[in-house]
Specification:
Elements (H helix, E strand, L loop, with lengths): L10 E10 L5 E6 L7 E2 L2 E3 L6 H13 L6 E6 L4 E4 L15 E11 L15 E7 L4 H4 L5 H10 L5
Enzyme class: hydrolase
Organism: Sphingomonas abietis
Function: Accelerates the degradation of transcripts by removing pyrophosphate from the 5'-end of triphosphorylated RNA, leading to a more labile monophosphorylated state that can stimulate subsequent ribonuclease cleavage.
């Protein structure tokens, strides 16, 4: 079986959420499907016909249990940000259709309490969660997303 040339594949349309609590810390979850101790912010693909804001709010609820009524959208990154999958993952994720993701990122303020976080959702993605300092994010993520996270921090730097 030949693997596709990643350069020939499109990016998967997606949304990402930087969720801040009242102390200015960021929600991160530890993925269930990863053997490395990597943490990430909620993110996921957009459904056909779905706009980025709707996708972000849906992904947030699907991954964290936090309903849209408990967040306030503060900002959207001025441009979409993308990342490429490592060569060994191209062809394995997303049925081999994409080289990585192009994400619309949203900065959101969490209006609830820690008791409103419920990662045991219908289709859990995280084994654990915590609040992290924004500047810690690039060192917590899988290496191939480090630049993405640095770009997200730059996009929202004036609001952190």
């Amino acid at each position: 079986m030949t693997h596709p040339n990643p350069a020939d594949l499109p990016y998967r349309p997606a949304a990402g959420i930087m969720l801040l609590n009242h102390e200015g810390k960021v929600f991160v979850g530890q993925r269930l499907d990863s053997s490395v101790e990597a943490w990430q912010m909620p993110q996921g693909g957009m459904d056909p016909g779905e706009d980025a804001e709707t996708a972000a709010l849906r992904e947030l609820e699907e991954e964290t249990g936090i309903p849209a009524r408990l967040v306030e959208i503060v900002a959207r990154a001025a441009e979409d940000l993308d990342y490429d999958l490592p060569a060994d993952l191209v062809g394995k994720l997303w049925k081999g259709k994409y080289r990585g993701q192009r994400q619309a990122w949203f900065l959101m303020r969490f209006l609830g309490t820690d008791d409103d976080v419920a990662i045991q959702t219908a289709h859990p993605e995280f084994r654990a969660w915590k609040w992290a300092e924004p500047n810690e994010l690039p060192d917590m993520i899988v290496p191939f997303k480090k630049t993405l996270y640095e770009n997200v921090l730059r996009a929202f730097a004036d609001r952190l």
